[in-house]
UniProtKB/TrEMBL annotation:
The species this protein was found in: Sitta europaea (Eurasian nuthatch)
Protein name: ECD protein
Recorded GO CC terms: nucleus
Biased composition (Low complexity): 505-516
Start-end of Acidic residues biased regions: 432-455
Annotated signal sequence range: none
Domain of life of the organism encoding this protein: Eukaryota
Spans annotated as Disordered: 432-473, 497-526, 557-579
Gene: Ecd
Amino acid sequence: LPRPGETPAHIGGTTLFGDNVEDEWFIVYLVREITRDFPGLAARIDDNDGEFLLIEAADFLPKWLNPENSENRVFFYKGELHIIPLSETSEQDWDLSAPCPTIPQALDLLSTRSEEFLAAEPIRAAVYKRISGYPEKIQASLHRARCYLPAGIVAVLRQRPSLVAAAVQAFYLREPGDLRACRRPFTTFPAEQRVMTLVTFTQCLYAQLVQQKFVPDRRSGYTLPAPSHPQYRAYELGMKLAHGFEILCSKSSKVAPDAKRNVLSSPLWERFLRSLKEKDYFKGEMEGSAKYQELLHMAEDHFQQSVAVPEGSVEVSPGDEILTLLQTTSIDLKEFEREAACLPPEDDDSWLDITPDALDQMLKEARNESPPSTNEEEQSYDLETVAESMKAFVSKVSTHEGAEMPWSSDESHVTFDVDSFTKALDRILGADSEELDSDDLDEEEEEFDFSDGDGEGLAAGNQRQEQQESPEELVGSLRAYMDEMDRELAQTNVGKSFTTHKRGASSAEAAPAEGAGPERGAEDAELAPLDVDMNLVANLLESYSAQAGLAGPTSTLLQSMGVNLPGNTELTGPSSRAA
């Protein structure tokens, strides 16, 4: 037993699930069912990303829960997900500096007050949604396909169907050095004795195998028919799978042929065989009969791989297991050929192809959104909403942890308090709110005249700077600088690229400010205020159109704020749409 304060006695394990994330969630389902069937057990599970159960429910987590303090807080107990809150780990007799509870502390809380730590309903719903449908979903994730394989591989897969995963991974993750064994006639699985068979994959394994482009070496003996051949896919899959098995065997530790014989002659095997007979393992079969020999070979394989392996020894490699099975399994080529003549049909693999609409549907389901109709999309397409949501996002104060979306169109609306905005400017500039009309300051209220002549003006300016300027003078100076910058930018390509408000007839004919020269008046007449909202929306629509229906920064940003743009079904450009 462990010493007090250490992790108590437990059962643990590690699984390499590779690219098949569904395998990981199947393990979560098993762990939950174990805690349901054995109420006294508590279980926690994580992966290389950490507490991935919390990642799945990230939209519903409390603010205090983060990766730094989530360790030893998330458990399955009595078939339900529990989260130990932060306040429960701040007791007097515990280490206050420790951000996470210890395993004994967590187990003590769960055993006495588990009902208080039941995770919130949205968190549990998000996690349980990923494991819903099991165990029925297991069969739905399998795919049966025809493969043209060497008879030895067919015999091995009859005994150990799970070895197909190791073979696919060996081929899928192959390195240049692994193919050395495949650049010569295969020694373990020659291509001469091949038969058609039906192999069961997981959908992930099948996709990994079928999507790999590979041309076999001619010296291997594995030649493919023309792509138009009706059995081309079966030949190609069999060739790839045979390469995977050959790679595994080439990495074998080459156990001596008499190693199995030595193990089966030990007293431990005799006791094991005697116990099998006492429990009627052979079901009354006559010793020496075909059925008896088949059951005996299965018992020998199990004993060698499980019972006879000393504790703490290295796990048997797939290559060693394959070679052992080849030595103990009979290969009846004629029987395999008879079975090949009446194989059941293989499964349809159209699930490999996904349309853009189906992908959008999957993404919306992942975000718990119902698919809107075309009319709803058009009705929800509001340019003002696009502009206001972007303004709200830009004005949101972010932290060192990143920016947060300030609102959702389904929850609240953006409001703009003009009084608060002008008061904030008053505090910054020290001016009255009446003097701050808009972002586009009126040229008729200018107090300064920037002309070309100006030694005297500069000298006077220097004298004024020596004196303390009043708030009104500061505002006037800022307004003058901004006007001058607008005039300079208006004549450039950058300035001409923006959309401006159209001036009315009265403003266009208004005389320039008093004291301004003729050139200054012409510039002021041409200088029109920018339409900020129109420029913002036009640029967003142009970026959205450039995505061509694919994922991109504009759609991602707007959708996160609850704004959904309809598909661009028109042939016109984004600028005309914005107009």
